Amino acid sequence: MPRTYLKKAPGAAKAANGGSPADIPAIVQGVIDAIRAEGDAAVRLYSEKFDKWSPESFRLSDAEIQHAISQVPAQTVADIKEVQANVRAFAVAQRESIKDFEIETAPGVFLGQRNNPINYIGAYIPGGRYPLLASAHMTILTAKVAGVKKVVACTPPAAGKIPNATVAAMHLAGADEIFILGGVQAVAAMAVGTPTVPKVDFIAGPGNAFVAEAKRQLFGEIGIDLFAGPTEVLIVADETADPFMVATDLLSQAEHGPDSPAVLITTSEEIGKRTIELCAELLEGLVTAPVASVSWRDFGEVVLAGGLDEAYAIADEYAYEHVQVLTAQPREALEKMQNFGALFLGPMTCVSYGDKCIGTNHVLPTLGASRYTGGLWVGKYLRTVTYQEVRNTEQSGKLGQLCGRAARVELFEGHARSGDLRAHMYLKDEFDWIKPGAVQQ
């Protein structure tokens, strides 16, 4: 769909492919290969190299965890607990919406479905530029609500020290083991297993380009939540929107990283132009402006739409992670839009609530992935499996006849014979390949 830009991002093409340096895959592959071959020795080597971190044990003891929590302000601990209560309430509702069932499709033919939790998962909680406590709630707590038996959680050190608040969030969320270990070395250690880091079946959690690439390369050997790219925000606004709010909310997400796209699609040229002016003004007093200003300069866009239907259609083309709707009737977006990681409806809601405290999960699809998947939720930690049982001889025989015909069309003679055997046993059908007396009934 043609677009009229009030501000066009010069870095938009780069954002589409993630903007990652070409050598990241090779570096990540080298780390993974070394950890496969050398185990803990390679983990320690890369932790020293990348994080300047080499404690006697990367795994925190119970005493170390309790000491870390004791160093966290009481208000912060209380806030962690309140946020986790919100996340837990929503995750529990999600889990209760997923039902096991059994149906009888014909007399004596029973088909069923069970939702079994993954046994062992790894949670990666980023550090680096920002200590993302909320990722502990989203990955660990949600897994525990799903019924995961064991959660191994890793987070990098903070400037050579244990990140106490993050550890508190990880522990209170239910992590069974906590490692102060970051980057590719953490993801690889959990994926392949070492003498000290347990092997897991699935890894969840956001991270930088190296962490994302490690998850990509290890996918298949383990499960992962999502292929993650830079944080994205898109706001749909009409003439009723407050441009100061629009600018504030765009920049709130631009601070995630210098390649985080922030897009406004508006039906009002006045709102669009004023938002551009206000972003420039607000950046002057924003502590995170060194990051947010680069993101806004290189990846920020303002698009003018001919009407709300066109605005929603353009937004669906972007298929962004976060979509905020600042219009007179924001709930219209629930019917008008399909491609998004999460919707934030109305001026009393904002993307930051989803990131930090409201209770929905903030691990969401980026780089257009919302066209085919949603974000992290309880269901990601469940394996939906089926079972079948036939208790009626006549029905087993009839299924055998059907199976024989269907399989021979596909030239699967062995499959056909499994069906023939039941038709012979229960309906007395005769087959040349079944000799008299061959079957003990």
UniProtKB/TrEMBL annotation:
Entry's EC annotation: 1.1.1.23
Binding site for substrate: T231, Q253, H256, H322, D355, E410, H415
UniProt GO BP: L-histidine biosynthetic process
Record note on cofactor: Binds 1 zinc ion per subunit.
Binding site for Zn(2+): Q253, H256, D355, H415
Keyword Oxidoreductase: yes
The organism's place on the tree of life at top rank: Eukaryota
Binding residue positions for NAD(+): Y124, Q185, N208
Pathway listed: Amino-acid biosynthesis; L-histidine biosynthesis; L-histidine from 5-phospho-alpha-D-ribose 1-diphosphate: step 9/9
Cellular component GO terms, alphabetical: cytosol
Keywords: Amino-acid biosynthesis, Histidine biosynthesis, Metal-binding, NAD, Oxidoreductase, Zinc
Catalytic activity: L-histidinol + 2 NAD(+) + H2O = L-histidine + 2 NADH + 3 H(+)
Enzyme type, top EC level: oxidoreductase
Known cofactor(s): Zn(2+)
Active-site positions on this chain: E321 (proton acceptor), H322 (proton acceptor)
GO-annotated molecular function: histidinol dehydrogenase activity; metal ion binding; NAD binding
Signal peptide: none
Keyword hit for Metal-binding: yes
Entry-linked Pfam families: Histidinol_dh
Family the UniProt entry places it in: Belongs to the histidinol dehydrogenase family.
Function: Catalyzes the sequential NAD-dependent oxidations of L-histidinol to L-histidinaldehyde and then to L-histidine.
Designated name of the protein: Histidinol dehydrogenase
Protein's organism: Staphylotrichum tortipilum
